[in-house]
Amino acid sequence: MFLLLVLLVVCFSVFCGVFFYCQALITGFGCKRWTVAGLLFGPLIWPMFMMKKRMQLNRLFGFEQLILIA
After folding, report:
1. Within the chain, which residues score under 70 in pLDDT?
2. How far, CA to CA in Å, does 11 sit from each of 23, 42, 65?
């Protein structure tokens, strides 16, 4: 039972790493950094990733611009 739990945690960690790699590739962030963060911390990185993405958009377009992503 313990081995199954460890296997589940490892698979979930790999899934989160791949997910954050793809998201970093799409948004133009450092892929290695976000992949390692996803592997180590899993879905707890998602709010930090979204905040980084929002800060990048604000830096590019400014705070007064309306950005619609369909």
Report:
1. 70
2. 18, 11, 40
